[in-house]
Amino acid sequence: MPIKKAAPKTAAKAAAKSASKTAGKKTPVKKAAARKSAGVEAPARKVAAKKAATKSAARKTASRRRAAPELEEELEPAPAGGTSLVIVESPAKAKTIGKYLGRGYTVRATVGHVRDLPAKKLGIDIDKGFEPEYVTIEGKEDILTDLKKIAKGAREIFIATDPDREGEAIGWHVEQYFTRPPRTAVTAPIRRVMFHEITKDAVHKSMAKPMDIDNKKVEAQQARRVLDRLVGYKASPVLWKTVKKGLSAGRVQTVALRLIVEREREIRAFTPVEYWSISADLQKGQQPFAAKLHQVDGKKPEIPTGSEAERILADLKGRKEFEVTEVKRRERRKNPAAPFTTSTLQQEAAKKLGFGSKRTMRLAQDLYEGIDVGVDGATGLITYMRTDSTRVSEDAANAARESLRAQFGAEFLAAQPQLYPSGKANAQDAHEGVRPTDPSRRPEAIQKYLTADQFKLYQLIWQRFMASQMAPAVFDTTTVDFDIPTRGRSYLFRATGSVVKFQGFLALYREAREEGEAKALEDEQALPFLEQGERVPVKAITPTQHFTEPPPRFSEASLVKELERLGIGRPSTYASIISVLAERRYVLLEQRRFFPTPLGETVEKVMVKKFPDLFDVHFTAKMELELDKIADGETGWVEVLDEEWSKIKKNLHDDDLPALIGEAYDLSALASEKCPECGGKLVAKGGFFGPFVACENHPKVCKYTRPIKGEKKPAELTKYMCQECGEPMVVRQGRSGDFLGCSKFPKCRGTRSMPTGVKCPKDGGEITERRSKKRGKAFYGCESYPNCDFVVWDKPVADVCPDCGYVGAEAKANKTRGHFRKCLKCTNEWDVAAPDDAAEMADVA
Fold it and tell me: What pLDDT is recorded for position 746?
């Protein structure tokens, strides 16, 4: 039902009319009101005389009309406000939308999910068609109660949770709470509205076109939640029995972990192969450039050894000039990238800004929900940020073009508006790409209203979208060949380069590049103007040794890209997948690359062996397509779950526990060991509190058991003294690795981080490893904090600086330079030999 601006006034008139008809009746409400106002009747009449009589009557009777049903249900009267209730997810969004809708509306927030499966039991009746048991989430009882109170007095209710399946499910839970049980059900009509962007025009347009909650989307989200619960509750106990109590397995997270672990195995199994390249340093006038050996006797050069490279150099010895034998010139165009999807936003923010996926999505949520930008007040700065579509509305494209025309001129515009229809087969094309809500709102104009991180992300989104409506960049590319005949063989050197002829979108935005990605056209060398037959001076011919490299470890950006390529997860799940892996200590993020921990490798090995189908990459991608079919009404959610459950339950047995424990631990020594009590064989067994070693006659005949890792070793004393009691400290183990604990525990509970053995250059204190609370990333700081603020991100090592002699340096590495050190005191840098990665990670873990 369309919403009209006159609705609040109409409601007031109707209330006034109702009041006049019932003026002579003695209702319980009137009696109560009369008793309360007995002592202030005269002053009330004086005040009322100064006001318009009709306006006062309308307000009072409208209030009574709302209060009556509340008394019948023994609830307090609804808060004063509008006659229409709008329900959103976050308080920030509620504030922004409330400003746009005005006094005729009450806008309230659910503050995220309100109902879910119970926390301490399965909550699913498998035999009754996977019927879920939903309960109110702890801490959300008061929120739901208040919402229902307000809904009782509302003329109509609009559920405006986020425009995705998760938001649809939250809205459905609110609707169910309002309408059940029938005895206390809300009678006002409940409609669904979706805000793809939170601006005044967009909000009013959406309010004018309400719809019903899409039960198919709700069923798709319910199927995902039920399947995830089944996997978590049925697969996790396998980890408890075979690895360690308290571990958990997630349906999608385990597949992402599998990708990281399998990449690590590839790296370990990789055997580097030596090869050489040869490059000629040339110069025309004042412009140097390089030409690489491209062919030998018309074939791709294969130079496996240094001796072969020396042979080629001997053939070319004495060459002072290279003659140009062919020049090819052509014009190339490079089109701008499409606006961001959730995936590409996370990738680019990681590469360009160094933001993790979780951080990026939190900032994007703030920009979407609304920020006070001065004169305009609180307003949403970007469209909905969870999308896998690049689509752009024609209005938004035209608005961007107008702004660009004013800033750059008409020649920088694309020939026509670029709408970027989604070409992905499995894209949920319900939203546009991520873009600014108002293209004319330039980042620098609102910078003072944003935090530093909010500004960086908004600028990135704004530049990417605006660049998508700009003209292609035009390059003049040149390929120059130098065919050098010698007595034995012919060598072809080739120089390639490009020059920007017209900047186009590059005037505003350039994509970031990561290790392993191809060089962009704009990053190619510039070549001087050369003609065929021209002779160019040769400065040097240089051989360079190389080794083939394994595929790089995943960064946050490349992992998100791989998950999207394989069809694993959805836009709203990428950030949580990555953060869960880090929080559970299955992976470590070091130098922006994921390393699996020994625990993560063990979990992956056990889960994949036990449930090969469930944690298969292709199965997980297929499941996403099945969920899409449920949302589109092509299949039923119960049928999908029934099929998947049949694959899970066939592996829910304990017959293979000893073999799984063998995957997690080295049990080779058990074959030669005997039970110290009865002489029987020792075997591995799985229990509720984790795996253990027991006598084969356990528990009927022999009671012998011991921990799976062997008898507990005595605590290792260190030279460090407890800061609490002055007693020696010992090395202990915790969830996050080793730490120092007081030898007098539990009498003294003094602890400290594990020292690195390197002293702080500021005050001489010990440098220890710590972890940031927000990102869980390891960093190293002085133990004297907060009195000393010295911190570094890379691990300190006790290497001596060749310049100042200080013992202490950061262990750093990058693709260009390899491994090197940076002095903690004088910041001098020097190269070192590459350490063994596995040994290095063992030290970190």
Answer: 84
Residue 772: C-alpha distances to residues 17, 364, 776, 779 (Å): 63, 22, 5, 7
| Residues of the chain under the 70 pLDDT cut | 1-82, 422-430, 515-516, 710-714, 734-737, 772-777, 815-816, 834-845
CA 251 – CA 314 distance, rounded (Å): 60
d(CA 249, CA 232): 6
Three-state SS annotation for 45-57: HHHHHCCCHHHHH
Residue 40 token pair: 């202030």
Please check whether residue 609 is in contact with residue 284, taking contact to mean a CB–CB distance below 8 angstroms: no
Task: Tokens 């021209």: give the residue.
Answer: 534
Residue 424's pLDDT is what?
A: 55
Task: Give the number of other CB atoms < 10 A from CB of residue 317.
Answer: 9
pLDDT, residue 817, reads: 74
pLDDT at residue number 756: 83
Q: How far apart are CA 258 and CA 600, in angstroms?
A: 9
Residue 599: φ, ψ to 5°: -65, -45
| Alpha-carbon distances of 64 from 22, 27, 82, rounded to whole Å | 11, 11, 14
Classify residue 519 by its DSSP letter: P
Task: Judge whether 384 counts as a catalytic residue.
Answer: yes
**Which residue in 177, 368, 384, 586 is the catalytic one?**
384
**What is the pLDDT at residue 664?**
85
**In whole angstroms, what is the distance from residue 253 CA to residue 88 CA?**
29
Of 717, 753, 759, 721, nearest to 737 by C-alpha is 753
Sort 241 into a burial class: Cβ within 10 Å, 0-12 / 13-18 / 19+.
buried
User: For 596-606, what is each residue's pLDDT tens digit?
Assistant: 999 999 999 99
**The model's pTM:** 0.74
Tokens of 411: 């020649």
For 323, the token pair is: 């003659």
- For residue 607, give the 3-state DSSP assignment: helix
Nearest to 557 by CA among 359, 370, 406, 345: 345
| DSSP structure string for 631-665 | HTTSS-HHHHHHHHHHHHHTT--STTHHHHHHHHS
Residue 72, pLDDT score: 33
Give the whole-angstrom CA distance, residue 194 versus residue 205: 10
